[in-house]
Amino acid sequence: MQPTLQTERLILRPFELTDGEDVRRLAGDRAIADTTLQIPHPYEVGMAEEWILTRRPKFEAGEEVVFAIVLRETGELIGAMGLVIEGKFRRAELGYWIGRPYWGNGYCTEAGRAVLEYGFHSLNLNRIHAYHFQRNPASGKVMRKLGMKHEGSSPQHVMKWGAFEDIELYGMIRSEWQGPRGDAGDLPG
Ligand SMILES: CC(C)(COP(=O)(O)OP(=O)(O)OC[C@H]1O[C@@H](n2cnc3c(N)ncnc32)[C@H](O)[C@@H]1OP(=O)(O)O)[C@@H](O)C(=O)NCCC(=O)NCCS
Fold first, then answer.
1. What CATH number does the domain containing 119 carry?
2. 118 part of a folded domain
């Protein structure tokens, strides 16, 4: 069973089918597809529900965990964050989006701390990494605020909408994780 995580302002819970319309409205914004690789554009009716339905089997197979990010105060869905897990190497890739009306409030960073804690502590991962397009500095800022280290740049590593994109790689090893509040957590062996 995928747990629900709580932070000061957020609840991170599994997606439900009834989130589909909110996902389509928020992730359907061109600005979200523009700096991500997996989000379709245009975001057609039914795509979100199909995506939601395929998350649970992936969680059960140990391949992935995705959380809906919800405001505690209002219950509004504001974004998504997940880990794509490579169990063989005890590592995962972190990915996320926050709906445009909610940008710049520290929500992504707050959710990221909870997901890193979950990854290192509950999933017993050894390494978590993430990529962002060079032209997306807000995402790089989130990664740095999470304590991830810049590990390198890959010129023209991927293609988006017909143009090659330079990408930046960030990563963290479990021994570097200081816990969700910046204190040294007691990680299991
Ligand atoms: C990247 C994204 C998730 C950030 O979400 P958010 O909730 O606004 O993030 P936070 O508020 O936690 O932190 C963003 C930081 O970037 C900073 N920032 C925003 N725009 C910036 C810019 N153009 N240049 C530099 N820093 C920028 C903000 O000031 C903030 O830093 P601060 O807290 O020191 O002020 C959001 O913009 C998004 O969903 N973008 C589209 C999808 C996407 O790119 N996903 C990531 C793919 S790698």
1. 3.40.630.30
2. yes
